[in-house]
Q: What sequence folds into this?
């Protein structure tokens, strides 16, 4: 049985995700995946407590948010799958805003 409340509690908002990415990118360049977002946001332990199907939902929601940022030009989607977070995931690179905008 899917526990929707637990899933909702674990998934960061779009604003929290982009704030995390921008802050982290000031220190080092990172390939962003749903799993990486959860690790950097210190939410991985909570996700590990979820059932497999619930984890898949969390990862899908975060990937969808990352895809939205890619459509808006804030992230660049990588062509090849990345295996740095939770298995093979879609990877994204941060695209900093151009100076003067």
A:
């Amino acid at each position: 049985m899917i526990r929707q409340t637990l899933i909702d509690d674990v998934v960061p908002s779009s604003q929290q995700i982009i704030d995390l990415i921008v802050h982290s990118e000031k220190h080092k360049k990172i390939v962003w995946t749903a799993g990486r977002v959860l690790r950097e946001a210190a939410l991985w332990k909570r996700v590990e407590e979820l059932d497999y199907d619930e984890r898949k939902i969390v990862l899908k929601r975060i990937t969808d948010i990352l895809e939205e940022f890619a459509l808006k030009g804030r992230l660049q989607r990588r062509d090849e799958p990345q295996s740095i977070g939770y298995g093979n995931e879609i990877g994204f690179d941060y695209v900093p805003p151009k100076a003067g905008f």
